[in-house]
Design brief:
By secondary structure, the chain is an alpha+beta fold. It contains 36 helices and 18 strands. Helix 30 (about 640-655) packs parallel to helix 32.
Length: about 750
Amino acid sequence: MNTEIHTCMQCHREQTTQWQASHHAKSMQKADRQSVLGHFNHFTFKNDNSWTLFDHDKNGFYIETGLKGQPGQRYSIPFVFGFYPLQQLLVDIGGGRLQAYTVAWDARSIEEGGQTWYDLYEDAHQPNSPFYWQGQFNNWNTRCAQCHSTELTRGYDLNNDRYNTQWRQPNVSCEACHGSASVHLALQKEDANNSPQRQLYSGFDKPLQHQPLFTLDPQDHTASLTSLLTTRLAFETHRLAKAEPSNAQLSKEPILTAEQAAIFDSVGNSIDSTSVSRIENHALPLDKGQASQCILCHSRRHTLVEGQGQGQINQEIIPRLALPRLYHRDGQIQDEVFVYGSFSQSKMAAAGVVCSHCHQTHSNELISQDNPLCTQCHRASVFDNPAHTLHSIPLHSTNKDTPLCIDCHMPSKTYMGVDIRRDHSFRIPNPWVNEALNSPNVCLSCHQDKDHRWTQHALASKKDAIFTHNSDIGTATLLNETVPEHAQKIIEKWVLDPSQAPMRRAVLLDLLDLSQPSHVNALNIAANDNEALVKLGVLHKLSSAPFSLQLQIGFGLLYDDNKNVRLEAIKLLSPAFKTNIPVTAQEKLQAVLKEAVATYQTQQDLLSGQLSLADLAYNVGDIAQAKVHYQNALQLQPQFLPAKLNLASLHRETGQYQQAKNLLQAILVIEGNHSLAQYNLGLIYVIEKQWPKALSALNTAANTSPDNLQFAFVYLLALEASGQIDNALVQLEKLAQHTPNDPALIEIRHRLSQSH
């Protein structure tokens, strides 16, 4: 047992014992006979194009691997990664690099199909594959280490292209979540009455506040945040502690968060109903408090710091929005996006629910099995009832074939071949949305012999109730496609409603029709929202807006307190360096640009770092430097599509059309319906006046990404320019359904009517 865990166990034996069986404790372990689960008894695994021998000797565990019919090479296995439902091997390939090997051990039981080696990806032994086992995609130092170890530094040496990666603990240990224990240990040696800091996180520097308290009142069906009396008691505790620090006691009583304490301090000692209401009606944001520690790793993100950071999400990561390509159009998980992006869409998140309401904090296991987990807050007599579930057997039945709450509200998807993960958006099943937006229908995961229409018939009596929850991303998107004028009014209302889940608001901003002045005003209001996630949604929406509007709304975000907002703002606004803007504005742009470049220069071993540096260089007009960074990214991973795409755009804009086409066609070999590649290829064919090819590519782009109205608009212009007036009129009517009062469409309609 290492020194840190032994020290913690002296006072926290129960918590340490729970942790020792957790995924956190086993996130990365030294490869030995206790930790290695797979067969290393001179076993050879073969696939269509490669082979791998698993064995061990006095020097430890190792593999030999090579292409089919060719000799192989030996590599040592210093560590194993994870333990269930699969375990990967970390392979030492030299230069300080460890690779997560692409043949993994299925740790499930034999009855479940496990206890065998299997391929994670096809063609992982082919150097030109995006999933090449020695490539960037499978590199532990850059892709895995930060979240699987404690206080890790990558230690990348740019000049020698080597790593000296260091960590405090190889796994996710106590200090990964709590922060350094040095002050905490010192406080334990002092008298509590003489230790003012003892009340604040018990000396730790990470804000793991107590979870918000919920009460299920007799007249309610669903629990709500703590009562007025409880909140008053918490206020009084804060007042006494502020007046005399010795009154502060370490206990499990409700405490005020820093934000709540600030409200108290702003109103003095008078605790009135209005002040309390401000606390009870505004749940603790996900980017503060307990959940922030989990989000730093359990999210799809661009990381801005090394190690686990201090739990300050908006200074340490740029979270990815729940948009198509990573998510289905209704917000359901699609790519490997972990938990934050779906959970931050949920009513649970908006209500103040945090991870530990469902998961034990140290074992990571669920605090209760099956439906009792849900009926903590949702009254069983109402929700665990056939009238609600539409299943004849109550969900609390012991019949193992009976669906659970999570089967309908948390659909699962399998990643890495055997790893089943659930969507945490807790959405209401909506087969009408599923059919229209081509997203998974959760009912059909059990009723596999049925279709959308059968599901819609089964839920017909619930349809009105389902669509009253139309602030969900899917229902809002469907309404916007079917009744856009009505939908735009209510979407404008939702994006400005602080009671809505922050990710919903951020994504719904993308649906606003900015040809309407009121929607531009709504975007401007959202740019001043308290939620950083909403501001990131504003910046994403602005990315497809005219540059004048980008400057008008986005410039103020360069002054934002949140680093992730500032860095996304400069990425959007850096082209302003090529325009005539006031000196004072130039100074602010320059300051944030320097901050961004300084951040990304520490990440030149990361694809995201190289891409960000390239994009910034391109935006400010330094084409040569942009090319260097795009090419650096392609050296890290030759099949990295975003770098190929952006380099192709650069070639197109500098008149190097054939080079651009080569890159775009290479992307389409890998991903045939890549809408941006089709769009850019179509633009080149327009320049070359190869109209059939241009129209085909632009039409594919518009159909593949129906939410991207720019693709549809450029396709309309191409139809007009090529003389296909009738087809242009048809396309115009499609666009007008989304933006009926767009002045540009009105002008094009006038031109087409004259040509017809």
